[in-house]
Amino acid sequence: MKALKVLAQFCLILLMLSTGSCTQQNSSTSSHEIVFAIGQMPLNLDPRYATDAASERVNRLVYQSLVDFDTQSKPVASLSTWVELSPTVFRFALNKNRASFHNQMPLTANDVKATYDSLATLKDSPNTAEFANIKNITVIDNDTVEFQLNQADKHFSAKLIIGILPAKLIAESYDFSHSPMGNGPLKFIAWQNKLTLQRVNDGQRISLIEVKDPTVRVLKLLHGEVDLLQGELPPELVKYLQTKPDVIVKTGIGANFSYLGLNFQDPVLQKLKVRQAISHAIDRKQIIAKAMIQHSREADMILPPEHYTNQLHADLTLNDYNPVLAKQLLQEAGVKLPLKLVYKTSTDAQRVRFATILQAQMAKAGIDLEIRSLDWGTFFEDVKQGNFQLYGLTWVGIKTPEIYLKAFGTHSVPPNGFNRGRYADAELDKQLAEENWQAATTRIRQQLPYVPLWYEGQFAAMSKSITNYNAKPDGNWDDLGTISYAH
Amino acid sequence: MFLIKKLSSFATVIFGVLLLTFLLIHLVPGDPVEVMLGESASSADRNQLRADLGLDQPLIQQFGAYLAKLSQGDLGKSIHTKTPIIEMMKTRYPATVKLALLSLIIGIALGVPMGVYAALKVNHWQDIVVTLVSVRLSAMPAFWLGPMLMLIFAVWLGWLPVSGMESGASIILPALTLGFGLSAILTRMTRTSLLEVLNDDYIRTARAKGLTEQAVILRHALRAALLPIITIVGLQMGSLLAGTVITETIFSWDGIGRLLVESIEKRDYPVTQACVLIVALSYVLVNLVTDVLYRFADPRVRVSA
Fold first, then answer.
1. Residue in B with minimal Cα distance to A213
2. Which ipTM score applies to this complex?
3. Which of A242, A408, B131, B164 has the largest CB neighbor count within 10 A?
4. Which CATH architecture is the domain B92-304 placed in?
């Protein structure tokens, strides 16, 4: 028994460690730091580089931008109001009562100029191209800044949603990526295993921790290790949480558009009747009822019904489930049944689940759908290269109608835009150029360059101690600016 | 001489791994420039950045430049986070080593005594129970065992944290998840290996000379049975140091395995290359240690070498 002794000692160490864990847990509870578990940590907190959803959601809280959007996605004043002096000149007046940067330096027009000037010089920023149209930025005074453009752009103000950085720190090549410095409602404290932020007005600390596995996120909420979850859970886990007395689940409508992309270089998919058949072969209502969370709703357009360009009409009957009609349309299109199509999606469990449901539904309409589930990098590369017949994706956080031009414009084939299906439609191009949104959306509804699916509902699950937090349609975390912990 | 020979062969292995990884990374779909600039960037901007990063050079030249930087200890920067990779490794690799070592200790502490016990009670009910338990443990995948341990020890009993790295106790559940699997392998290997030597003549001689059963087992039989166990432990340690992606993901353990998979998903090529390099170095090092241990465990290896 030497070995037994070693084993006994090891067990003792385990016991001591576990006692230590309980102590630590209690102490963290007493500090009332709100812990928010997310599926993916932000990658880069420099707003000039950030492209992933988590970074953009945190950046909205740490920085302030010149412009924001209202509930109808119209650009509204945030840090400034603006006037369009001419089609190529925009003047922005900063709010008098604006907050200073978190290092107490005042935010001035010089900081605005420095932020957007620096974007033009960065060689590796994904946002640089968006502002290539800026000719010159002039500081009029401490509170006023003027943007001159090379070409007229009606939607220019809606693009100024990059958080403003301090000019002095930009000049010093400060590392905003890992140590952000803005003037938003939350200030950065630390980022090691967790990202810790602190609310400026009352000192409330909020920590973001990454927990990849959805089941583990739920277990952590139930165990009291985290106070808040939002999105990224399969519906069965959301329903499970709704049965727990110590957890509050809030759901709300979503605005992120899920769709089937089609390849117009494929001769079969060029036929409108085939596209209509695919659309009629999908029972969206059933999928929403059985496999999605509450408040999910059918979609017919990228921008949701409440968007200012999309309120005139939304005729969802165009996409009604009708497998008999779908089969008839395929036959009228001269397609030999069953029509074999390859559908590409990511390896995400919920996306694969949707794919199998679509496969079963389409089979009833005479479509033999082959599912290819690929790792994200390969899948997205295939989509961009046009190497697909059908694919499934979601547009997240889209606010401006320019998306129609970028997604469906004939000249917007990658790398010039997001027209990944290589759709070409001179009539739509004309309507988009004229910004005739009503005509353009009608045309898109009829021609189906995408097969629209749904706007997935949003939800947040929290412990009973949490108040003042709601799920937002685009999934942002803005309510971290108001969230409270009841003692 | 032994070490020099080994080290030179390991250098060849590492070079081969680096070359193969470099070539494979350039074969898979995905372009780092597109990852950095997004879909909207102009062709001119793309070409400019491609030139700045040296990606417009022939592959052999790119590989040469990579090796030159590597020789100065420069692993590059992450495409996404812009963090120097060496900094990422400083936190990720120790986390993996810590988890691997504790898992190995648990595996050995449970597996070897259980295997010895089963061998000594061969064909008795105790042997059957140990064998059944070890088969059960080896059949439990980490993605099932991990959440079960969380449910029992964290949610129901409240003894341990569910996941994360915040407290010292956070390591226990992932280490148990890995350690249980390892112990199952070691139990069966120890049992089989020990049974083979227990009937050998020298064991019979040792017993005939009047040695206690404890001395016969620990001093003679177990030592002779150690070689295959060392091999298994070495291989398992190599795998553990390569990172255990599923366990690290489930338990939110920021180790190298999780980093490697995430970097592949995001096409963060410099990080992928660095992770593969570290994993290869770990394997090579563990193999070296295993070879050295062989020489201590079995004098015949020393003689033949």
1. B250
2. 0.76
3. A408
4. Orthogonal Bundle (1.10)
